[in-house]
Amino acid sequence: MFNLKTFRSTTGVAALSLTLLSPSLLASQSSTQIRNTPTPIGVSSTMATIIENRQVSNSEVKAPDSTKAWLEVQQQLNSEFSKLALKAAESLPVSYQKKTIAGVDTFVVTPDKIDPRYADHYFMHLHGGAFVFGGEEAALREAIWMANGLNVKVISVDYRKPPLHPFPAAIDDAVAVWKEITRQQPANNTVLFGTSAGGNLTLATTLRLKELGLELPGALFAGTPATDLAHTSDSWHTLKGLDPLGSREGLIQGTFEIYVPSSDFNNPLVSPIYGDLSGFPPTLLISGTRDLLLSDTVRMHRALRAAEVTADLHIYDGQSHGDYMMGLFYDLPESDDALAELGSFFDTHLN
Amino acid sequence: MFNLKTFRSTTGVAALSLTLLSPSLLASQSSTQIRNTPTPIGVSSTMATIIENRQVSNSEVKAPDSTKAWLEVQQQLNSEFSKLALKAAESLPVSYQKKTIAGVDTFVVTPDKIDPRYADHYFMHLHGGAFVFGGEEAALREAIWMANGLNVKVISVDYRKPPLHPFPAAIDDAVAVWKEITRQQPANNTVLFGTSAGGNLTLATTLRLKELGLELPGALFAGTPATDLAHTSDSWHTLKGLDPLGSREGLIQGTFEIYVPSSDFNNPLVSPIYGDLSGFPPTLLISGTRDLLLSDTVRMHRALRAAEVTADLHIYDGQSHGDYMMGLFYDLPESDDALAELGSFFDTHLN
């Protein structure tokens, strides 16, 4: 049986992982950090406090066992994450509006202050959440982080999701929005980005654009992307018990299975690590030394480099899945640092 | 009591780590891999075989307890590692000769085929081995790897070491040789490189050149460098039991203590992570997801980036400390890949 309380305490399945749930909620959970490790030396005092107070377990959480059960969990988590997103939207100098683009639900996030170079310009965002979660207003979290951090307008795609809309609905939606955005601004001056499942979709959508012969983005940001849904990369094993994301077995594997009912996990549009990456745009990847998707990230970096793609890798000491984005809620130097790297990378590579 | 058999089986203290000892020798050891982890997905079949056959333990090995005992172990390991180096020298199209430069022992390694761009040109190498080991002909291992891999002549410095010559003798020797080399060729066209303790010395020597107001190298390669001797970085804890290097406690800490008898581990020339890195040359760093010095490496990368230094990070999935260099003895795609990255980096950044 699916147990939301255990789920909350042992996984962080959404884009930013459940580490972004409120501390009071986390404090109510019973699981504890199973690996007895000192606080990392190479982190800020804020990050150290986050790590010291987080709940980590590697116990397996069962996936919901029916479409109805999936929909209930999806709705409940969307609601919780949306509250966090709205809190961020209120506390930061940004505004947002819903907009239907090419028939797809999106959010347009506008910072109060816009970088003049990006005045008539949008970045395109694909949110995370294990392909199933993180939609509706919850999608705003990373979009706000980027919009506020780089003073750029962001269009975040609330793509269709399982259980009702499996692969390739999300990619079809992303392509449709991409076509519309690039009618208004040059593709090679447009960033496509996302974290976790959003990192997967960023890479997969770019592969799909290649297949369709469409113009590619000017640069990509793939944050701790899930790049291999067919095989379990090493860091899922080696870092178990250190990352609040928990465990791939059970629920997370379940999200992959309802995302790809055909189980064709070797399809490059499902697992971009297996794709033909030649001609890919410059790509920035971020992970952490306690990130269960560290191996997925560094394998993707090597695959891009093997295809002679410009690809920069940044690994934060002690960070778990998506931690760099915690600057949305904390004054976090590592988050500012990541935004500085992103800004510098886009300055260099956008047309 | 110091036990060489246990030491061999549980640590990999030298530049290339003891993983480069012969498989037959490793097979004779009794320790086993303590963390029950599947073979990493993201490695070549050769690397997979190496990982599957390696002996890993995290048990602490006591350091020798007298100068005499240190000297005996030093000589014994130098002898063993030198045999490996000579085997590589015989099997690969390179030659070498001893040469005293500025009063310092060095080896000049010359590949049969020299890249025309480097015809009158040397790279400068500082070998690894926890500051104590890896000298004499053992120093040739990484020098041969680079010379053969990039078709470039390499001067490898057999710097003075503890227990007889603690810090800063090694750096003084490196600076003396650097001055002599850069009398013959432009500094900004000269690479300085090393792995492990050699990576530390590469960074520390560059800091010292800055202090002295001397010209800096055109580019650095710091392979899985020990950058923080004052504090134990996170991956020493989180990856324990996965890396044949073993454990920092005991012997490795002992090498740090005889390298710096004053225990001033916060001195930036001892722990370059604490140095003023502004104006540093472009630096390439390599580590692996099972490398006990992963955190030391990524922390250094962030410190360089914070100082606005061009710094590229490459992390190999599943690799432990210095594994990329195993191409010296195996047909290893990851090793070829690392050499390709190094060649490309130097092409871009050397004058």
From TrEMBL, chains A, B:
<dbReference type="InterPro" id="IPR013094">
    <property type="entry name" value="AB_hydrolase_3"/>
</dbReference>
<protein>
    <submittedName>
        <fullName>Esterase</fullName>
    </submittedName>
</protein>
<keyword id="KW-0732">Signal</keyword>
<dbReference type="Pfam" id="PF07859">
    <property type="entry name" value="Abhydrolase_3"/>
</dbReference>
<dbReference type="GO" id="GO:0004806">
    <property type="term" value="F:triacylglycerol lipase activity"/>
</dbReference>
<feature type="signal peptide">
    <location>
        <begin position="1"/>
        <end position="27"/>
    </location>
</feature>
<dbReference type="InterPro" id="IPR050300">
    <property type="entry name" value="GDXG_lipolytic_enzyme"/>
</dbReference>
<comment type="similarity">
    <text>Belongs to the 'GDXG' lipolytic enzyme family.</text>
</comment>
<keyword id="KW-0378">Hydrolase</keyword>
<dbReference type="InterPro" id="IPR029058">
    <property type="entry name" value="AB_hydrolase_fold"/>
</dbReference>
<feature type="domain" description="Alpha/beta hydrolase fold-3">
    <location>
        <begin position="124"/>
        <end position="322"/>
    </location>
</feature>
